Amino acid sequence: MVLAEDLDELRRSALAALEAVGSERELEEWRVRYLARRGELARAMSRLGELPAEERRAAGQAANRAKDELQQAYEGAAESLRRRAAGADHQVDVTLPGVPPVTGGLHLTRQALYESVRIFAHMGFTVFETNEVETDELNFGLLNIPPDHPARDMWDTLYIDDELLLRTHTSPGQIRAMRAYCPEPLRVILPGKCHRYEAVSARAESMFYQIEGLAVGHGITLASLKGVFEAYAQQMFGPERRIRFRGSYFPFTEPSVEIDITCHCMGRGCALCKGTGWLEISGGGMVHPVVLENGGYDPSDVTGFAFGMGIERTIMPRHGIDDIRYFYGNDLRFLRQFA
Ligand code: FA5
User: Fold this and answer.
1) What distance in angstroms lies between residue 55's CA and the mean position of ligand 1's atoms?
2) Rounded distance, CA 158 to CA 148, Å?
3) Where are the domains of the chain?
4) What are the angstrom distances between the C-alpha of 29 and each of 35, 54, 61, 124?
5) Does ligand 1 come within 6 angstroms of the Cβ of 297?
6) What spacing in Å lies between the alpha carbon of 261 and ligand 1's midpoint?
């Protein structure tokens, strides 16, 4: 039965060719070659009439089966091509190069805050968090700076209304901490954001961070402040560093000092320290008796020291940063150097 064998061969080669089809165009070429009116299958079937009558029926049935099978295979291939095209957008090309994930990092100020907190924590200080929006009374009045006191000019203030303001320093937290701890002795640091209505320059920002330190108890002297501050400076900036006190004035400390640290030029004199060998990093002093009283303590019983340092100005020399405006200018080229 030569025709039947030809049909079988045709069916197998058509199915094999369909396996290799990968596009709509190739599928159409396949259909024209095998299934169209003048295609190979139609040509083979046209030979049915040449067969003797007794063979024609069985061969005709075999031809119809081959035709049905190829037609079904054609429709299946068309459907899978359609599905592949619809899902093409979602396909993952595993050979493409990867996209590195963008990782963030701690801001330079935050790193210095954490480092400072760790150092003070080892000396027994606890972090006390206080308000960024303060009352005039806490920011000034209870710190021994009544209304119209000339010392108010030391802090150019951003007021929210007659009573509320953005704190100009972390010192109002002293009152809050004392009221929270009194009558127990306390040793706290108060890190936080401060705001001043100031002309911005290479040395001054309108928003910056301070770390306030406060210790109240028996037998606390200016020498305690010196010891604590020297230990901090040496751990933060290097064991060779020294500090010195210079007489100063703050209404809430008596006596008051400015605290300087030896410059990294180690006294040889450089542009940063203007040839003096010293850099100012903090204000400080013994807590004024009026302030102790406002915090709830009896100044005839206990004493205390306090300091307040600006974080940005303190770490600028360490990183060779000559302009404070880089800190919050949000220039990633600057920030990434410290991430
Ligand atoms: C005060 O703010 C006092 N509250 C410090 C203090 C606390 C004294 C406790 C005594 C006892 P002063 O205004 O000097 O003081 O600011 C302290 C530090 O904050 C400065 O040494 C400086 O490092 C930083 N600082 C002040 N103003 C700015 C500013 N505009 N930009 C950046 N840092 C500033």
Assistant:
1) 111
2) 16
3) 2-86, 108-338
4) 10, 36, 26, 85
5) no
6) 15
State if residue 196 touches ligand 1 by the CB under 6 angstroms criterion.
yes
The model's pTM: 0.74
Give the C-alpha distances (Å, rounded to integers) separating 288 from 103, 142, 155, 183. Answer: 47, 11, 19, 17
- Ligand 1 in reach of 304 Cβ (< 6 A): no
The pLDDT value given to residue 80: 87
What integer pLDDT is reported at residue 88 of this predicted model? Answer: 62
Residue nearest to atom 22 of ligand 1 (CA): 310
- pLDDT of 104 reads 87
Question: How does pLDDT run across 73-123, given as a tens digit for each residue?
Answer: 999 999 888 888 877 656 778 898 888 888 889 999 999 999 999 999 999
Q: What is the pLDDT of residue 87?
A: 73
Query: Distance (Å, rounded) from C-alpha 131 to C-alpha 6?
Result: 93
Q: Hey, what CATH topology would domain 108-338 get?
A: BirA Bifunctional Protein; domain 2 (3.30.930)
Q: In what order do the strands lie in the sheet with 207-217?
A: 126-127, 186-195, 207-217, 303-310, 278-287, 253-262, 243-250
